[in-house]
């Protein structure tokens, strides 16, 4: 099947290439003058890192292999500092490149290290999970976690390109694949309701990489993200809509010490955001939200006793301005709005609706 290219606009436009056999295109994405390419990939992940390194070596680049811990534990200042040292030891200069191969945690880390090394070197991302293809690797937002919370340190660095090798999805554990569906469903609620109807038509098929609508779902969600970040890379306003469900989600991830999948936390966070929308007199999409998430096996509730801690964690959300807590809500389907400075009673009432 031929590759699809989705253009992400803005000051530094780039392509997201979706298909099979796409790692071969990697050398064509690098700007002229590159000598060394540092490949950051999870140490435990077999698969794509090999073909990526091979494609680079065959094209004549010096490849530096930089394995990192798997998953969210890699998004730490200690791991980033280890990578900065390695880039220094290998003499990676401003005309060289970083390539990140892996799930969203790895692409976030690779983007952050590329964005901070020498104040920014080019990065190409090769996402290997559904979530990273449809969300994390696209859009130039990267980051690491600190003890105070999720993604609190990071940069905006548009990649030079993103390569989505669809065959790599076949090896994904089901739980991680389904977690990626949460971000696709988010895209349906904030911008593209056709995503919702495709999933609702056959939820079981949506949980399989071989499902009849998989490619359309992936391309539609990437298009949603491309449209938004192409217009507002640095989250001056519009880009906040991509954070739908994330205010509570990030608090839950921290509460779970990152033992819950990001997509699972986003699923619960979307039910909370839907409740906030309903209880503040906006759209009532609670039933549809619960139903579509449940149909693919995503969680929709969280522990009642966690509220005081979650409330506290949400105070460090990046959308807040001073003491004013801000949420993305839905004025209507595909019409996101903002809830600014909500009463504490409203926040707690919405949580009561989703707690178990
Ligand atoms: N920067 C952004 O815009 C953005 C957007 C969404 C999410 N994120 C971040 O992305 C991260 C979540 O990403 P994720 O869900 O990909 O998690 P992840 O990176 O932790 O990967 C999940 C698991 O899947 C494994 N894996 C990866 N590819 C595989 C494959 N092809 N086959 C088998 N196993 C594979 C990984 O090794 C890992 O154990 C979070 O840190 C989240 O904050 C960032
Ligand atoms: O790209 C964005 O912007 C998003 O908000 C997408 C989210 O899915 C993603 O999880 C992002 O990393 C959250 O960003 P943050 O600024 O809230 O840390
Ligand atoms: Zn997310």
TrEMBL record:
Residues 67-177 form the 3-dehydroquinate synthase N-terminal domain. Residues 180-320 form the 3-dehydroquinate synthase C-terminal domain. Its main location: cytoplasm. Transmembrane segments: none annotated. Its cofactor is NAD(+); Co(2+); Zn(2+). The keyword NAD applies. GO terms for molecular function: 3-dehydroquinate synthase activity; metal ion binding; nucleotide binding. It catalyses: 7-phospho-2-dehydro-3-deoxy-D-arabino-heptonate = 3-dehydroquinate + phosphate. Pfam families: DHQ_synthase, DHQS_C. The keyword Zinc applies. It is found in: Cytoplasm. Its EC number is 4.2.3.4. Binds 1 divalent metal cation per subunit. Can use either Co(2+) or Zn(2+). Pathway: Metabolic intermediate biosynthesis; chorismate biosynthesis; chorismate from D-erythrose 4-phosphate and phosphoenolpyruvate: step 2/7. Coiled coil: none annotated. Keywords: Amino-acid biosynthesis, Aromatic amino acid biosynthesis, Cobalt, Cytoplasm, Lyase, Metal-binding, NAD, Nucleotide-binding, Zinc. One of its GO terms (cellular component) is cytoplasm. SUPFAM superfamilies: Dehydroquinate synthase-like (SSF56796). NAD(+) binds at residues 70-75, 104-108, 128-129, 141, 150, 168-171. One of its GO terms (biological process) is aromatic amino acid family biosynthetic process. Zn(2+) binds at residues 183, 246, 262. Catalyzes the conversion of 3-deoxy-D-arabino-heptulosonate 7-phosphate (DAHP) to dehydroquinate (DHQ). Belongs to the sugar phosphate cyclases superfamily. Dehydroquinate synthase family. NCBIfam families: aroB. PANTHER family: 3-DEHYDROQUINATE SYNTHASE (PTHR43622), 3-DEHYDROQUINATE SYNTHASE, CHLOROPLASTIC (PTHR43622:SF7). This is 3-dehydroquinate synthase. It comes from Nonomuraea solani.
